[in-house]
Design brief:
heterodimer; A: seven-stranded mixed β-sheet; four-stranded antiparallel β-sheet; 50% strand; B: mainly beta; six-stranded mixed β-sheet; five-stranded antiparallel β-sheet; 0% helix
Chain lengths: 115, 112
């Protein structure tokens, strides 16, 4: 069964450093998302991406965050200058179609620890 | 406003029993989805129910949706120890860009 692949599975970084989280969505999917889950809290929407541009972003997704689809297969989330409160599990998701009733496929997540 | 609030927050049952988890939401929705998350792992999509559907089955899972009460329930029948996980409901609002809004989740423990 097709999978969304995320790397690395765990990343530890120093506060103030830049991190790039990588995702390979399912190949025929067109809509891509990043969500995050701070330990013990809800899964929160960060950003959605379609046709090489952001279609929606949450208030969490400030200027420190950016997304890119650099080569037609990878979908990356960059955090420019990490803060302690960025520590969370980050999930990438993709879906094939635009309609709300298309199912999402989530990756296994990247656990980001900022120290 | 809070969307996708599950209850109970934690549920412990014996293997073989049924587990019922509830979710309430506040806005009009296009669909509601249930996900499972094993400890520290990714989200696994279990089932999607559209706003015009009232009940849906998938294997040992049964989901109901009551749009008049803005609530949903997930029933897992004949539970197994492997069903131990956190379960989340997530809604897609009408008119939204199909982003998911998650609840806080329910921790289900199935004792062997």
């Amino acid at each position: 069964e097709p999978e969304v692949t995320q790397t690395p599975s765990h990343q530890v970084t120093q506060m103030g450093q830049e991190v790039i989280l990588r995702c390979v969505p399912i190949s025929n999917h067109l809509y891509f998302y990043w969500y995050r889950q701070i330990l013990g809290q809800k899964v929160e929407f960060l950003v959605s991406f379609y046709n090489n541009e952001i279609s929606e972003k949450s208030e969490i997704f400030d200027d420190q965050f950016s997304v890119e689809r650099p080569d037609g297969s990878n979908f990356t989330l960059k955090i420019r200058s990490t803060k302690l409160e960025d520590s969370a599990m980050y999930f990438c998701a993709s879906k094939r179609g635009a309609g709300a009733n298309y199912g999402y496929t989530f990756g296994s997540g990247t656990r980001l620890t900022v120290v | 406003s809070q969307q996708g609030e599950e209850d109970p927050q934690a549920l412990s049952i014996q293997e073989g029993e049924n587990a019922t988890m509830n979710c309430s939401y506040k806005t009009s929705i296009n669909n509601l989805q249930w996900y499972r998350q094993n400890s520290g792992r990714g989200l696994v999509h279990l089932i999607l129910i559209r706003s015009n559907e009232r009940e849906k089955h998938s294997g040992r899972l049964r989901v109901t949706l009551d749009t008049s009460k803005k609530s949903s329930s997930l029933l897992i029948t004949a539970s197994r120890a492997a069903d131990t996980a956190s379960y989340f409901c997530a809604t897609v609002r009408e008119g939204a860009n199909s982003k998911l809004t998650f609840g806080k989740g329910i921790t289900l423990s199935v004792r062997p």
